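Table S2 (continued). Query chain:
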Amino acid sequence: MPSFPYFTIIDRYFIRSLLLTTLMCLISVVGIMLLFDILQRADAIPDLFKTHSWGALEILGKYYLIRVLWILQTAGIYLIVSGLTITFYRMERNTTATTRGGEVIPMMTSGFSRLRVAVPFFYTSIFLVLCLFVLVEGFFPNCTDWPGSNSSSYTPEKSVNIAKRIDTSTRIKISGDRLNLESGQIVRPRLELPLSMTGALIDDITAELAQWVAATEEHPGGYLLFGVEDLDKKSWIAPVTSVEPWKTQKIFPAANLTWVPEGGDLFVVSQLQPEFLQNRVQMFVPVSLWEIYRKLHEPSKNFQLDLRVELHSRLLKPLLNISLIFLTVPIILSARFRSKLVIALLLGMAVLVFQVVPAFCIGMGERGMVSPYFAAWLPLFVFYTLDAFLFEELYT
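Corresponding output:
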Protein backbone atom coordinates (compact mmCIF):
# COMPACT_ATOMS: atom_id res chain seq x y z
CA MET A 1 0.00 0.00 0.00
CA PRO A 2 1.54 3.33 -1.05
CA SER A 3 2.35 5.73 1.76
CA PHE A 4 0.72 9.10 2.13
CA PRO A 5 2.71 11.77 0.22
CA TYR A 6 5.13 13.69 2.42
CA PHE A 7 4.48 11.36 5.35
CA THR A 8 7.43 9.01 5.14
CA ILE A 9 9.67 7.99 8.02
CA ILE A 10 11.87 11.05 7.58
CA ASP A 11 8.79 13.30 7.47
CA ARG A 12 7.49 11.81 10.70
CA TYR A 13 10.91 12.38 12.23
CA PHE A 14 10.82 16.05 11.22
CA ILE A 15 7.25 16.49 12.48
CA ARG A 16 7.97 14.79 15.80
CA SER A 17 11.09 16.90 16.34
CA LEU A 18 9.22 20.14 15.60
CA LEU A 19 6.23 19.32 17.81
CA LEU A 20 8.39 18.25 20.76
CA THR A 21 10.66 21.28 20.47
CA THR A 22 7.72 23.71 20.22
CA LEU A 23 6.10 22.04 23.22
CA MET A 24 9.32 22.41 25.22
CA CYS A 25 9.47 26.11 24.29
CA LEU A 26 5.90 26.57 25.50
CA ILE A 27 6.55 24.66 28.74
CA SER A 28 9.68 26.73 29.40
CA VAL A 29 7.97 30.08 28.87
CA VAL A 30 4.86 29.09 30.82
CA GLY A 31 6.95 27.61 33.64
CA ILE A 32 8.98 30.79 34.07
CA MET A 33 5.82 32.93 33.98
CA LEU A 34 4.01 30.78 36.53
CA LEU A 35 7.03 30.69 38.83
CA PHE A 36 7.35 34.47 38.94
CA ASP A 37 3.60 34.95 39.32
CA ILE A 38 3.31 32.45 42.17
CA LEU A 39 6.28 34.00 43.97
CA GLN A 40 4.65 37.44 43.71
CA ARG A 41 1.35 36.15 45.12
CA ALA A 42 2.67 33.71 47.70
CA ASP A 43 0.82 35.55 50.49
CA ALA A 44 -2.50 35.59 48.64
CA ILE A 45 -2.71 31.85 47.98
CA PRO A 46 -3.18 30.78 51.66
CA ASP A 47 -5.86 33.46 52.07
CA LEU A 48 -7.57 32.13 48.96
CA PHE A 49 -7.79 28.63 50.47
CA LYS A 50 -9.10 30.07 53.76
CA THR A 51 -11.99 31.85 52.04
CA HIS A 52 -12.80 29.33 49.27
CA SER A 53 -11.56 26.02 50.74
CA TRP A 54 -11.02 23.51 47.90
CA GLY A 55 -12.78 25.85 45.50
CA ALA A 56 -9.49 27.74 45.46
CA LEU A 57 -8.07 25.02 43.20
CA GLU A 58 -10.65 25.85 40.53
CA ILE A 59 -9.89 29.57 40.88
CA LEU A 60 -6.15 28.98 40.56
CA GLY A 61 -6.67 26.64 37.60
CA LYS A 62 -8.77 29.18 35.70
CA TYR A 63 -6.46 32.05 36.63
CA TYR A 64 -3.34 30.36 35.29
CA LEU A 65 -5.13 28.93 32.25
CA ILE A 66 -5.99 32.54 31.39
CA ARG A 67 -2.29 33.37 31.61
CA VAL A 68 -1.33 30.43 29.38
CA LEU A 69 -3.92 31.41 26.76
CA TRP A 70 -2.71 35.00 26.94
CA ILE A 71 0.84 33.83 26.22
CA LEU A 72 -0.42 31.82 23.24
CA GLN A 73 -2.32 34.86 21.97
CA THR A 74 0.60 37.27 22.23
CA ALA A 75 3.58 35.00 21.58
CA GLY A 76 2.22 31.79 20.04
CA ILE A 77 3.67 32.42 16.59
CA TYR A 78 7.06 33.23 18.10
CA LEU A 79 7.02 29.93 19.98
CA ILE A 80 6.41 28.14 16.67
CA VAL A 81 9.25 30.07 15.00
CA SER A 82 11.50 29.28 17.96
CA GLY A 83 10.54 25.63 17.62
CA LEU A 84 11.48 25.67 13.93
CA THR A 85 14.79 27.39 14.58
CA ILE A 86 15.82 25.17 17.49
CA THR A 87 14.78 22.02 15.58
CA PHE A 88 17.08 22.86 12.67
CA TYR A 89 19.86 23.91 15.02
CA ARG A 90 19.59 20.61 16.90
CA MET A 91 19.93 18.78 13.58
CA GLU A 92 23.19 20.68 13.12
CA ARG A 93 24.31 20.36 16.72
CA ASN A 94 27.59 18.75 15.71
CA THR A 95 28.64 21.79 13.68
CA THR A 96 30.22 25.06 14.72
CA ALA A 97 28.53 28.44 14.84
CA THR A 98 30.08 29.38 11.50
CA THR A 99 29.87 26.10 9.56
CA ARG A 100 26.72 24.33 8.35
CA GLY A 101 26.49 20.55 8.57
CA GLY A 102 24.57 18.03 10.65
CA GLU A 103 21.68 15.89 9.42
CA VAL A 104 20.10 18.21 6.85
CA ILE A 105 23.11 18.75 4.60
CA PRO A 106 23.72 14.99 3.95
CA MET A 107 20.03 14.63 3.05
CA MET A 108 20.40 17.31 0.42
CA THR A 109 23.56 15.79 -1.01
CA SER A 110 21.80 12.40 -1.24
CA GLY A 111 18.98 13.73 -3.40
CA PHE A 112 16.62 15.57 -1.06
CA SER A 113 15.86 19.06 -2.32
CA ARG A 114 15.54 21.96 0.11
CA LEU A 115 11.85 22.23 -0.78
CA ARG A 116 11.35 18.52 0.01
CA VAL A 117 12.95 19.04 3.44
CA ALA A 118 10.82 22.15 4.06
CA VAL A 119 7.42 20.62 3.20
CA PRO A 120 6.78 18.73 6.48
CA PHE A 121 7.84 21.78 8.47
CA PHE A 122 5.49 23.94 6.43
CA TYR A 123 2.32 21.92 6.90
CA THR A 124 3.07 21.14 10.56
CA SER A 125 3.61 24.83 11.32
CA ILE A 126 0.46 25.80 9.41
CA PHE A 127 -1.48 23.22 11.40
CA LEU A 128 -0.16 24.72 14.65
CA VAL A 129 -1.08 28.24 13.48
CA LEU A 130 -4.65 27.18 12.70
CA CYS A 131 -4.98 25.38 16.04
CA LEU A 132 -3.70 28.53 17.73
CA PHE A 133 -6.31 30.63 15.94
CA VAL A 134 -9.17 28.32 16.94
CA LEU A 135 -8.02 28.27 20.56
CA VAL A 136 -7.40 32.02 20.87
CA GLU A 137 -10.43 33.25 18.93
CA GLY A 138 -12.86 30.41 19.62
CA PHE A 139 -12.32 29.54 23.28
CA PHE A 140 -10.34 32.36 24.90
CA PRO A 141 -12.94 35.18 24.50
CA ASN A 142 -15.49 33.06 26.41
CA CYS A 143 -13.41 33.32 29.60
CA THR A 144 -14.39 36.91 30.42
CA ASP A 145 -15.86 36.00 33.84
CA TRP A 146 -12.91 33.85 34.89
CA PRO A 147 -10.53 34.90 37.70
CA GLY A 148 -7.76 37.11 36.34
CA SER A 149 -9.54 37.92 33.08
CA ASN A 150 -9.38 41.69 33.61
CA SER A 151 -6.92 42.09 36.47
CA SER A 152 -3.85 40.64 38.12
CA SER A 153 -5.80 39.29 41.10
CA TYR A 154 -7.32 35.86 41.69
CA THR A 155 -10.88 37.24 41.67
CA PRO A 156 -12.59 39.17 38.83
CA GLU A 157 -12.85 42.91 39.33
CA LYS A 158 -16.03 44.82 38.57
CA SER A 159 -14.19 48.14 38.64
CA VAL A 160 -11.17 48.53 36.35
CA ASN A 161 -8.76 51.21 35.20
CA ILE A 162 -9.47 53.21 32.06
CA ALA A 163 -7.13 53.85 29.15
CA LYS A 164 -7.64 57.11 27.26
CA ARG A 165 -9.39 56.29 24.01
CA ILE A 166 -10.53 58.47 21.13
CA ASP A 167 -14.05 58.18 19.75
CA THR A 168 -13.40 58.31 16.00
CA SER A 169 -16.99 59.32 15.27
CA THR A 170 -16.72 62.57 17.30
CA ARG A 171 -12.92 62.92 17.83
CA ILE A 172 -13.54 63.20 21.59
CA LYS A 173 -10.89 61.63 23.84
CA ILE A 174 -12.50 59.84 26.80
CA SER A 175 -10.72 58.90 30.03
CA GLY A 176 -11.49 58.70 33.74
CA ASP A 177 -10.48 57.25 37.09
CA ARG A 178 -12.40 53.95 37.23
CA LEU A 179 -14.91 52.05 35.11
CA ASN A 180 -17.64 49.77 36.46
CA LEU A 181 -18.09 47.07 33.82
CA GLU A 182 -21.49 45.92 35.11
CA SER A 183 -23.23 49.30 35.36
CA GLY A 184 -21.33 51.10 32.59
CA GLN A 185 -20.45 53.99 34.91
CA ILE A 186 -17.25 56.01 34.78
CA VAL A 187 -15.99 57.69 37.94
CA ARG A 188 -14.56 61.19 37.33
CA PRO A 189 -14.82 61.09 33.54
CA ARG A 190 -12.69 63.51 31.51
CA LEU A 191 -13.47 64.45 27.92
CA GLU A 192 -10.91 66.22 25.74
CA LEU A 193 -12.77 68.01 22.97
CA PRO A 194 -11.65 68.92 19.44
CA LEU A 195 -11.44 72.62 18.62
CA SER A 196 -14.12 72.24 15.95
CA MET A 197 -16.59 71.36 18.70
CA THR A 198 -15.75 74.21 21.11
CA GLY A 199 -15.57 77.04 18.58
CA ALA A 200 -11.75 77.10 18.53
CA LEU A 201 -11.64 77.33 22.34
CA ILE A 202 -9.33 74.98 24.23
CA ASP A 203 -11.69 73.28 26.66
CA ASP A 204 -12.53 69.91 28.15
CA ILE A 205 -15.26 68.46 30.34
CA THR A 206 -14.81 66.92 33.78
CA ALA A 207 -17.72 65.45 35.74
CA GLU A 208 -18.38 63.41 38.85
CA LEU A 209 -19.97 60.49 37.02
CA ALA A 210 -20.80 59.30 33.52
CA GLN A 211 -23.50 56.72 32.77
CA TRP A 212 -23.50 54.79 29.50
CA VAL A 213 -26.78 54.90 27.57
CA ALA A 214 -27.08 52.25 24.86
CA ALA A 215 -28.24 53.17 21.37
CA THR A 216 -31.72 52.30 20.13
CA GLU A 217 -33.68 52.94 16.95
CA GLU A 218 -34.95 56.21 18.47
CA HIS A 219 -31.70 57.75 19.75
CA PRO A 220 -27.90 57.28 19.59
CA GLY A 221 -25.71 55.83 22.30
CA GLY A 222 -23.53 57.95 24.52
CA TYR A 223 -22.67 59.07 28.02
CA LEU A 224 -24.92 60.98 30.43
CA LEU A 225 -22.76 63.25 32.58
CA PHE A 226 -23.61 64.09 36.19
CA GLY A 227 -21.99 66.88 38.20
CA VAL A 228 -20.22 68.65 35.34
CA GLU A 229 -17.66 71.14 36.62
CA ASP A 230 -17.94 74.79 35.51
CA LEU A 231 -20.93 74.03 33.33
CA ASP A 232 -22.04 77.68 33.34
CA LYS A 233 -18.72 78.72 31.76
CA LYS A 234 -19.11 76.48 28.74
CA SER A 235 -20.88 78.99 26.53
CA TRP A 236 -20.18 76.99 23.39
CA ILE A 237 -22.79 74.36 24.40
CA ALA A 238 -25.94 75.24 22.46
CA PRO A 239 -29.40 74.65 23.95
CA VAL A 240 -31.64 71.90 22.61
CA THR A 241 -33.87 73.30 19.84
CA SER A 242 -35.22 70.10 18.26
CA VAL A 243 -36.48 66.67 19.25
CA GLU A 244 -33.39 65.09 17.66
CA PRO A 245 -30.52 67.35 18.78
CA TRP A 246 -27.87 64.70 18.01
CA LYS A 247 -28.27 65.39 14.30
CA THR A 248 -26.59 68.78 14.71
CA GLN A 249 -24.84 68.52 18.11
CA LYS A 250 -22.65 65.91 19.71
CA ILE A 251 -22.90 67.46 23.20
CA PHE A 252 -26.15 68.98 24.45
CA PRO A 253 -28.05 69.61 27.73
CA ALA A 254 -29.87 66.56 29.10
CA ALA A 255 -32.50 68.35 31.20
CA ASN A 256 -35.45 67.81 28.84
CA LEU A 257 -34.50 64.45 27.39
CA THR A 258 -37.10 61.79 28.15
CA TRP A 259 -34.97 58.76 27.24
CA VAL A 260 -32.21 59.27 29.84
CA PRO A 261 -32.26 59.07 33.66
CA GLU A 262 -33.12 62.27 35.50
CA GLY A 263 -30.48 64.49 37.06
CA GLY A 264 -27.99 64.49 34.21
CA ASP A 265 -26.31 67.68 33.07
CA LEU A 266 -25.04 66.84 29.59
CA PHE A 267 -25.40 64.06 27.05
CA VAL A 268 -22.38 63.21 24.91
CA VAL A 269 -23.02 61.19 21.76
CA SER A 270 -20.46 58.38 21.51
CA GLN A 271 -19.85 55.06 19.79
CA LEU A 272 -17.16 54.08 22.31
CA GLN A 273 -18.82 51.53 24.58
CA PRO A 274 -17.57 51.14 28.17
CA GLU A 275 -16.00 47.72 27.61
CA PHE A 276 -13.68 49.20 24.99
CA LEU A 277 -12.44 51.83 27.46
CA GLN A 278 -10.85 49.21 29.70
CA ASN A 279 -7.10 49.40 29.99
CA ARG A 280 -5.85 46.69 27.61
CA VAL A 281 -2.74 46.23 29.75
CA GLN A 282 -4.98 44.74 32.43
CA MET A 283 -7.35 43.11 29.95
CA PHE A 284 -6.06 39.58 29.40
CA VAL A 285 -9.15 38.16 27.67
CA PRO A 286 -9.89 39.73 24.26
CA VAL A 287 -13.32 40.83 23.13
CA SER A 288 -14.79 38.15 20.88
CA LEU A 289 -14.91 38.70 17.13
CA TRP A 290 -18.67 38.18 17.20
CA GLU A 291 -19.03 40.91 19.86
CA ILE A 292 -17.00 43.34 17.74
CA TYR A 293 -19.10 42.45 14.69
CA ARG A 294 -22.29 43.00 16.68
CA LYS A 295 -21.08 46.37 17.96
CA LEU A 296 -20.32 47.48 14.43
CA HIS A 297 -23.89 46.66 13.35
CA GLU A 298 -25.72 48.45 16.15
CA PRO A 299 -28.16 51.21 15.06
CA SER A 300 -25.63 53.87 14.19
CA LYS A 301 -24.03 55.44 11.14
CA ASN A 302 -20.65 56.18 12.67
CA PHE A 303 -18.60 53.08 13.34
CA GLN A 304 -15.39 52.97 15.32
CA LEU A 305 -12.39 52.74 13.03
CA ASP A 306 -10.33 50.94 15.66
CA LEU A 307 -13.00 48.23 15.96
CA ARG A 308 -13.08 47.73 12.20
CA VAL A 309 -9.28 47.51 12.10
CA GLU A 310 -9.22 45.06 15.01
CA LEU A 311 -11.89 42.86 13.42
CA HIS A 312 -10.12 42.58 10.08
CA SER A 313 -6.60 42.25 11.51
CA ARG A 314 -7.65 39.46 13.88
CA LEU A 315 -9.47 37.58 11.12
CA LEU A 316 -6.37 37.80 8.95
CA LYS A 317 -3.94 36.97 11.77
CA PRO A 318 -3.53 33.28 10.74
CA LEU A 319 -2.51 34.32 7.23
CA LEU A 320 -0.06 36.83 8.66
CA ASN A 321 1.41 34.22 11.00
CA ILE A 322 1.78 31.75 8.13
CA SER A 323 3.68 34.41 6.18
CA LEU A 324 6.28 34.50 8.98
CA ILE A 325 6.63 30.72 8.70
CA PHE A 326 7.27 31.12 4.97
CA LEU A 327 9.98 33.64 5.85
CA THR A 328 11.62 31.53 8.54
CA VAL A 329 12.10 28.18 6.78
CA PRO A 330 13.72 29.53 3.57
CA ILE A 331 16.14 31.65 5.60
CA ILE A 332 17.21 28.61 7.64
CA LEU A 333 17.55 26.29 4.63
CA SER A 334 19.10 28.83 2.28
CA ALA A 335 22.37 27.82 0.64
CA ARG A 336 23.54 31.43 0.67
CA PHE A 337 24.09 31.56 4.42
CA ARG A 338 26.83 29.28 5.71
CA SER A 339 26.96 30.78 9.20
CA LYS A 340 24.36 30.01 11.85
CA LEU A 341 25.10 33.39 13.43
CA VAL A 342 24.05 35.13 10.21
CA ILE A 343 20.88 33.05 10.09
CA ALA A 344 20.05 33.98 13.70
CA LEU A 345 20.59 37.66 12.86
CA LEU A 346 18.33 37.45 9.79
CA LEU A 347 15.61 35.68 11.77
CA GLY A 348 15.78 38.37 14.44
CA MET A 349 15.39 41.06 11.78
CA ALA A 350 12.42 39.19 10.27
CA VAL A 351 10.67 38.99 13.65
CA LEU A 352 11.34 42.69 14.29
CA VAL A 353 9.85 43.68 10.93
CA PHE A 354 6.96 41.31 11.59
CA GLN A 355 6.18 43.24 14.78
CA VAL A 356 6.69 46.76 13.42
CA VAL A 357 4.87 46.65 10.07
CA PRO A 358 1.46 45.38 11.33
CA ALA A 359 1.58 47.73 14.34
CA PHE A 360 2.33 50.68 12.04
CA CYS A 361 -0.48 49.77 9.64
CA ILE A 362 -2.98 49.25 12.48
CA GLY A 363 -2.04 52.63 13.94
CA MET A 364 -2.67 54.33 10.59
CA GLY A 365 -6.02 52.56 10.30
CA GLU A 366 -7.15 53.55 13.79
CA ARG A 367 -6.29 57.20 13.09
CA GLY A 368 -8.23 57.19 9.84
CA MET A 369 -5.14 57.74 7.68
CA VAL A 370 -5.99 54.62 5.64
CA SER A 371 -9.08 52.45 5.42
CA PRO A 372 -9.44 49.59 7.93
CA TYR A 373 -9.33 47.08 5.08
CA PHE A 374 -6.08 48.51 3.72
CA ALA A 375 -4.54 48.59 7.21
CA ALA A 376 -5.31 44.88 7.69
CA TRP A 377 -4.28 43.71 4.21
CA LEU A 378 -1.11 45.78 3.69
CA PRO A 379 1.08 43.67 6.04
CA LEU A 380 -0.02 40.54 4.16
CA PHE A 381 1.02 42.10 0.86
CA VAL A 382 4.41 43.11 2.29
CA PHE A 383 5.25 39.75 3.86
CA TYR A 384 3.95 37.50 1.09
CA THR A 385 5.97 39.55 -1.39
CA LEU A 386 9.06 38.84 0.72
CA ASP A 387 8.00 35.19 0.89
CA ALA A 388 7.86 34.99 -2.90
CA PHE A 389 11.44 36.25 -3.17
CA LEU A 390 12.77 34.00 -0.42
CA PHE A 391 10.94 30.93 -1.70
CA GLU A 392 13.43 30.79 -4.57
CA GLU A 393 16.03 29.79 -2.00
CA LEU A 394 14.32 26.41 -1.67
CA TYR A 395 14.92 25.64 -5.37
CA THR A 396 18.66 26.34 -5.31
